[in-house]
Amino acid sequence: HLLLDNQEEAFRMLSRGDVSICPIQTLGQVPLQPLLAGPDAQVCVKTGYAKDDNVFCVKIAAGGGTFAGNTGMMQVYCQKTLRLQTLLQDEGILTEMRTAAAACLASRILMPQHVDAIGLIGASVQARWQLRFLRAIVPASTRKVVVRSRSQASAAAFRHSMRESPCLLDRQWDIVTYEEELESGNRKPLQQCALIHTVSCSRSPVLSAHDLLGDDGKRVSPLHISAMGADSVGKQELSLDIVASADLLLCDSIAQSKQRGELQHYFQSLGEETPSNTVLELGQFLNEAR
Length: 290
Prior knowledge:
Layout: H1 2-16, E1 19-21, E2 25-27, E3 42-50, E4 55-63, E5 71-78, E6 84-88, H2 93-110, E7 117-121, H3 125-134, E8 144-148, H4 152-163, E9 174-177, H5 178-183, E10 195-198, H6 209-212, E11 224-227, H7 240-245, E12 248-251, H8 254-257, H9 264-270, E13 278-281, H10 282-289
Parallel strand pairs: 7-8, 7-10, 8-9, 10-11, 12-13
Antiparallel strand pairs: 1-3, 2-3, 3-4, 4-5, 5-6
Helix pairs in contact: 1-2, 1-10, 2-3
């Protein structure tokens, strides 16, 4: 909960203009050439600092490679002397935790009151962290997770790793694969989920309105989606019909979301038109609700 509260204050500061962030550099993804680590590999370099703080930070986060897992580090500099103060060789763990905390912060605020099942799109290391932080915000009685990945084998491997994990939080879920739900006669396995988190690296939609709506084209219960996978230009997890039909769209930064993130394709489809639904920064939403 402390990390979620920390992220809440960070988003509030960002939308108040108390934080300065530089444009993100992304190596290995379009329009740049791919890295030798593979077509899904990328290295993100992010820099920022808070108003009147003593330091500024440069974060390097890498992952998606074929030959190794995620990695990264943080460089902390003094704002007065501009000299390096600290190196945090965290191998990307702080990035994993922050990403999961940001997603779960949004879900903590907006998820429906009753969540009997959770949908999880993606079976990466980040999927594991999402579930760890979700454990802090959903009732203990919520245990069912429907995992959809590139293949049933990868989803099953994720479930096995969670069951065998030394971390108690990982073993507290009843995980079923999307394909197992289909085989049991559930034609739309994700329709039962009132909360869905997406953490894939897809460049085309992996979730459509058809997956979520009944045969009559309607949904009888509320739904919240925290979409986190589209972290570079061109990536996309949700179909445009999902985004366009949402009652409320929240993002970390509207300016940044026009170039990367799940909303980039939505903004591009609108052109000069104004969105028909409400689009706000998460920090703006929090500040106005206070």
